[in-house]
Write a structure and sequence with these properties.
The complex is a heterodimer of chains A (328) and B (260). Chain A is an alpha+beta fold. Chain A is 28% helix and 20% strand. In chain B, strands 1-6 form a two-stranded antiparallel sheet. A two-stranded antiparallel sheet of chain B has the order 2-3. A two-stranded antiparallel sheet of chain B has the order 4-5. Classes of the chains: A alpha+beta (328), B mainly alpha (260).
Chain lengths: 328, 260
């Protein structure tokens, strides 16, 4: 019953058919042409069906083995992510991905794009969220901005041999001794609110975005950080400006770090006004950081100390598993 | 990708009532299945990321977020999710960083897999079987009527029927929408022009979420259809091959032999 002719011979009808099928890539286990063979009997058909079914089972089995192996490999991948040691609260592969994504963002956007601005009439008071690091019982008259790491600090009238000797008066219970790391002795400047207000005043109405998902359109007023850096020039290291800026609140419980490029962004403000009024302590006054190209957790409230470094400063969000970069 | 069975020649020549046909290319099968863990991870991590949408305090939502709401003006048609759902997930703010970490790793797999799929269908010519044509809308209604047993007229199937053409094309457009709204949210200040296409940062967040609900609905209908179509159809998405009845010519039996 089985056709004895060479099916690869293009001259034979069966061979011709085979070639057509190879060309269309449609049928694999083809059936014989009835014209070429004697009409098959029921037994032949049953045997043929069994052969086809067996071949199909073989293929299916092989594919399911591959699928099983792929599933196992994927499971191992998830396990590797879950079991990797944590880097600042985030599993190492996820942390590395976040750092790579940040690097890509910096390369593409270069912290230059301006965030969109809005009409003043749609602005609202920023919802007061995140009390961490905010001391609402501080005596504002004792607020000073401690500045460490600038060029020739002793030539300024505001020079002090140790900025950390300055105390903010507050009726809030002070932290127990040893709760916070000792910053040591740091010479620098103590800058007053009046001195920051004396810098050129800028306003913008921008959308403040929290990484939690909510956002508010807010009217800010303050000094450009770049103007501040023009007067208080950071000490250059190897002929270049420092790569990073670190900041912390008066109670030192909230801190952030930013790239020097971000600090120079024209919308980065040391803000002292919101909705045209002085910033209240609850809103992070007297001076807070405003950066519309970053998420809220990087926009420090009650900025009370600024340092410069070539090493990436700690960032509270970054320490708790969030992205250090936080750029939007 | 042509695979010839080792015993292909004998199989090819043996008469039989069934035959093996090649249904899905290897690349399509891989890209299809890669979607499964990738989408699961994106949706799972996305839920934890969206959890804080309503600006939650220790006692529940402070400002009702607008993302989970469908409505017009003061009229709310739908608002997701009930609190028990979040309790089931054990969602909380401290769980967000890990979810963000996963989301911003798997976004690469999602985008690369999707781009590879579109490129493959374009280059292989597979798009001809996938894109809807002028008859698709009418035929798709026939498919729906037939599947709901409202009609007895079996619609033309082909490799993909009209309803499949429409939904498989729509899901790719939705994928593109997810990638673009995702990018608009991810770089909402630098790419605010893109975000403004979706109604700004919050608009992009809204659309990104509801597109995902669209995937979930697609997934449910898809799984129901696969169950209905049966094992042969399902295993073809894994092995690439299915069994189908052979053309009549190949199975002609000799009536004289059957009825002596």
């Amino acid at each position: 019953v089985i056709d004895e002719r060479d099916t690869n011979d293009p001259e034979s009808p069966a061979g011709e058919r085979r070639q057509q099928i190879d060309a269309t890539d449609e049928t694999v286990g083809i059936t014989a042409n009835a014209a070429d063979v004697a009409a098959p009997g029921t037994a032949d058909l049953a045997a043929g069906d069994t052969a086809v079914a067996r071949e199909m089972a073989r293929r299916t089995r092989r594919s399911f083995l591959v699928a099983g192996a792929a599933t196992a490999a994927a499971a191992l991948g998830y396990r590797a992510i879950e079991r990797s040691p944590k880097v600042d609260g985030l599993s190492a592969p996820l942390r590395q991905t976040a750092e790579l994504n940040a690097k890509l963002s910096r390369a593409v956007f270069r912290e230059r794009g301006l965030a969109p601005t809005f009409d003043r009439r749609v602005a609202v008071d920023l919802r007061p969220k995140g009390r961490s690091g905010v001391d609402t019982r501080m005596d504002v008259s004792t607020w000073r901005l401690k500045l460490v790491g600038i060029e020739e600090p002793h030539t300024f009238a505001e020079y002090i041999a140790d900025v950390n000797s300055w105390r903010y008066a507050s009726t809030r219970k002070p932290p127990r001794p040893g709760a916070l790391p000792d910053p040591g002795v740091e010479p620098g400047l103590l800058i007053t609110l009046e001195q920051i207000r004396a810098l050129p005043r800028h306003e913008h109405v921008t959308e403040f975005k929290c990484i939690d998902g909510w956002s508010d359109i807010v009217h800010w007023g303050g000094a450009r950080f770049s103007d501040f850096l023009e007067i208080y020039k950071p000490r250059r290291q190897d002929g270049a400006p420092p790569r990073y800026i670190g900041m912390e609140t008066a109670d030192r419980r909230f801190y952030t770090g930013l790239d020097y490029d971000t600090a120079l962004h024209p919308q980065t403000l040391l803000a002292y006004e919101m909705s045209g009024k002085p910033l209240t302590l609850a809103q992070g006054g007297p001076v807070r950081l405003v950066m519309p190209i970053k998420y809220g957790y990087k926009q420090l409230k009650q900025v009370s100390k600024i340092t410069f470094s070539n090493e990436r400063p700690r960032d509270l969000g970054g320490d708790l598993g969030w992205d250090w970069y936080g750029g939007i | 990708m042509t695979e010839t069975p080792a015993d292909g020649s004998s199989l090819a020549d043996a008469p039989a009532t069934i035959r093996i046909v090649r249904k899905h290319a290897l690349a399509i099968r891989w890209m299809h299945w890669i979607n499964f863990p990738v989408l699961c991870t994106m949706i799972w991590s996305g839920l934890y990321i969206y959890y804080m949408d309503s600006d939650r305090g220790p006692d529940g939502p402070i400002h009702q977020g607008q993302t989970f709401r469908i409505g017009l003006g003061s009229l709310t048609l739908v608002r997701l999710f009930p609190e028990w759902f979040w309790k089931l997930l054990d969602a909380s703010e401290p769980r967000m960083p890990r979810a963000l970490g996963y989301h911003f790793l798997f976004m690469w797999f999602f985008v690369l897999n999707g781009a590879a799929y579109v490129l493959y269908t374009l280059l292989s010519g597979e798009w001809r079987a996938l894109l809807p044509n002028r008859d698709s809308l009418r035929e798709a209604l026939g498919v729906v009527a037939f599947d709901l047993t409202l009609s007895k007229v079996r619609p033309p199937q082909g490799k993909y029927n009209a309803a499949q053409r429409i939904s498989y094309t729509l899901i790719i457009l939705m994928g593109l929408g997810s990638a673009l709204t995702g990018l608009a949210m991810y770089k909402s200040s630098q790419l605010h022009g893109l975000a403004s296409l979706f109604g700004g940062y919050q608009g992009a967040r809204w659309l990104h979420f509801w597109l995902t609900i669209g995937y979930v609905l697609f997934f449910m209908v898809h799984v129901a259809q696969v169950i209905k179509a049966g094992w042969n159809n399902f295993s073809a998405m894994i092995s690439g091959y299915a069994i189908e009845p052979a053309p009549a010519a190949a199975q002609t039996t000799n009536p004289k032999e059957e009825t002596p």
